[in-house]
Design brief:
Radius of gyration: 21 Å
Helix content: over 70%
Number of helices: 16
CATH architecture: Up-down Bundle
CATH superfamily: MFS general substrate transporter like domains
Largest sheet: none
Shape: globular
Order of helices and strands: HHHHHHHHHHHHHHHH
Strand content: under 5%
């Protein structure tokens, strides 16, 4: 039988991802505008995003060592199922009672605590469901899913927001999360249980120390993680500013903001199809990725200064380049790091990204209160560009080694 990427397990995981992402996009869009409409403050919106990040520090640190020793599928299935129930309850609440800012802060903490388990399990199990030799194609598909769904769901979410309200959107999101859990339950995967004795604090501490020692010795992985933390944190911080800009700037609307997803979808779709068919040689992967990082940050610097049609073109270019660099990075990193450390190392990456997001979201949100929104985004994107040079370029020899592992394996 001819080998293919689309095995039963991989197909089931992608279908489950579709269900979860559809609901997440619609719910996230509706909630972001609900918070700003209720508070009228970019700082209040930023605080919501920042406090949601808190579980990302605690949960991965506690759960990752356990997850590296136990099967990861149950974490994935039960995480989606419980999220589905909670989103449904949240939607029912909003249908009967008014929005409360403090209540939503607490609700966000609970949801993101459970979401951290789910995300960690997903990132750890995903590489195991990709057939050997199909890593680049597999990560290209995963990188394309979200933007493809955004182009469908963001405009639809904008319509649903006015037509049925946030409550019903959350109920739909909850139902789709439950469907995702049901789909994931049919995945059959053999996972080793690496827990020969009762789990203890001493064992947990030893596991954490082992992962930290690995990161200390692997400057290439550490540099990639550091830059990803800064650039993702900055992107998270831009979100409340984008909402405020399109809500307050003359001639702009929420619907126009939702069309950003259409533009990125176009770029990511074309880029994903190219990347799916054309494999970039290992020796050229670092150069390509670093070039993309420079272009991407430059595009963010000038985004809000452009006429609207050029804003859309800006997002198309970023979508095309971004999906290619993301798939290359994920493939390189996940193949490079040891499987027995994967959950812990993915957890540390999540913690770094979330920590950066918490800090930068608050800083950028506060700057948005006192600075011109366009100037604020430009300044932050420039500083992000500098961070790329201070991490990825400064340690380029070590980063090269991560990206060129395939070439080393062939020699």
């Amino acid at each position: 039988m001819k080998q293919t990427l689309w095995t039963k397990n991989y197909t089931l995981l992608i279908i489950a991802t579709l269900f979860g992402s559809i609901g997440g996009i619609a719910g996230g869009f509706a909630l972001s505008f609900l918070v700003f409409d209720e508070t009228g403050s970019t700082l209040a919106s930023a605080l919501i995003l920042a406090i949601q990040i808190i579980p990302g520090f605690v949960v991965p640190l506690i759960a990752a060592p356990i997850m590296d020793r136990l099967p990861r599928k149950p974490f994935l299935v039960f995480g989606d199922a419980i999220n589905g129930v909670l989103y449904t309850l949240g939607g029912l609440y909003l249908l009967k009672y008014p929005f409360t800012y403090i209540g939503y802060l607490a609700f966000s903490l609970v949801l993101n605590t459970l979401g951290s388990f789910d995300s960690l399990a997903y990132n750890s199990i995903y590489p195991k469901l990709i057939p050997e030799g199909y890593e680049q194609k597999g990560y290209t598909v995963s990188a394309m899913l979200y933007p493809v769904l955004q182009v469908i769901m963001m405009p639809l979410a904008a319509v649903l927001l006015d037509a049925v309200g946030v409550g019903w959107i959350l109920i739909i999101q909850g139902s789709l999360s439950v469907l995702a859990a049901v789909t994931e339950s049919f995945i059959h995967i053999k996972e080793e249980k690496r827990l020969s004795e009762k789990f203890s604090f001493k064992m947990w501490l030893s596991d954490i120390r082992q992962a930290l020692i690995y990161l200390k010795n692997e400057r290439g992985i550490r540099s990639i993680y550091s830059y990803m933390a800064v650039t993702n944190g900055a992107a998270q911080g831009y979100s409340p500013l984008m909402v405020a800009f399109f809500r307050t700037a003359p001639g702009f609307t929420a619907a126009m903001y939702s069309l950003f997803s259409v533009a990125e979808f176009a770029g990511r779709t074309i880029g994903g199809l190219v990347h799916y068919k054309v494999e970039i040689p290992p020796k050229k992967r670092f150069s390509f990725a670093f070039l993309v990082y420079q272009i991407y940050e430059t595009m963010d610097m000038c985004l809000l200064w452009l006429p609207y049609p050029f804003m859309l073109a800006n997002r198309i270019i970023c979508g095309f380049l971004g999906i290619n660099s993301a798939a290359l990075r994920q493939t390189a990193v996940q193949k490079y790091i040891p499987e027995e450390l994967r959950a812990r190392l993915n957890a540390f990456q999540d913690i770094m990204i979330l920590g950066s997001s918490a800090v930068l979201t608050l800083i950028i949100g506060a700057l948005g209160e006192i600075m011109d929104l366009r100037l604020c985004v430009t300044l932050c994107a420039f500083l992000t560009l500098i961070s790329c040079w201070l991490t990825v370029w400064k340690n380029r020899k070590d980063v090269h080694r991560v990206y060129e592992k395939d070439a080393d394996d062939l020699t």
